[in-house]
Amino acid sequence: GENVEQHPSTLSVQEGDSAVIKCTYSDSASNYFPWYKQELGKRPQLIIDIRSNVGEKKDQRIAVTLNKTAKHFSLHITETQPEDSAVYFCAGVSGGSNYKLTFGKGTLLTVNP
Amino acid sequence: NAGVMQNPRHLVRRRGQEARLRCSPMKGHSHVYWYRQLPEEGLKFMVYLQKENIIDESGMPKERFSAEFPKEGPSILRIQQVVRGDSAAYFCASSPPSPGSYNEQFFGPGTRLTVL
Q1: Average of pLDDT values for A29-47?
Q2: CA dihedral sign, ordered A88, A50, A97, A5
Q3: A:B CB pairs within 8 Å
Q4: Which in A59, B45, B81, B102 has the greatest CB count within 10 A?
């Protein structure tokens, strides 16, 4: 089955700096990679996603890049703000299914004012 | 359009008791997924259900756990004879039918189960 590794587990940045979170996956047939933001005690919310036929996707201050050859994908947040502080999870959908999300262990991002 | 609803939000049980967690999917969604999140861990897939059918239960523990999604009413995740290791947040997600491609799963607020 799919295995998703996520780094770093914690990340602290100053407001206005950029933050990068990286994930690797094991199943070369995986074809969909969402990123979720989870605030303390709240539900995970989809913030951006990318499909395997695309190398990069951007939405305002958030971007995701995908390297299929190396089987890794990254989340980039620019001009970070204190409200970006949360736990971020990457995930992959196994090529053998079109529904089973395999999550990384999460990155606790802290943006210091 | 109400989102995915789960209740209760918090549930405390003593060892050996039963826990019942309920999930009402978004309107128009016929697919339900349950995930478990242990402290400081990512979410782990448990089971995927459609109305009256269990499609994939590969993530469910072999004993004490069961799930259903009846024709009428919410989906239920049932844990019998709970143990301390069952303490976790249980999230439900729903999606519309996804013939051949992935459809976004919308998550509920979760039920936080504490076993004393």
Answers
A1: 92
A2: negative
A3: 56
A4: B45
Count of Cβ atoms closer than 10 Å to residue B16 Cβ: 10
CA B65 to chain centroid:
11
Sign of CA dihedral A66, B93, A38, B21: negative
- Judging contacts by C-beta atoms under 8 Å, the chain A residues touching residue B43 are 44, 89, 101, 103
Contact criterion met (CB below 8 Å) for B50 and B69? yes
Q: Render the burial of A53-80: b for 16+ CB within 10 Å, e for the rest.
A: eeeeeeeeebbbbbeeeebbbbbbbeeb
In this predicted model, what pLDDT tens digit does every residue of B29-66 receive, in sequence order? 999 999 999 987 889 999 999 999 999 999 999 999 99
CB proximity under 8 Å: A 39-98 to B: 42-46, 49, 89, 91, 93, 97-98
CA distance linking residue A69 with residue A56, whole number of Å:
14
**SS3 of residue A84 by DSSP:** helix
The single-letter code of the amino acid at B88 is A
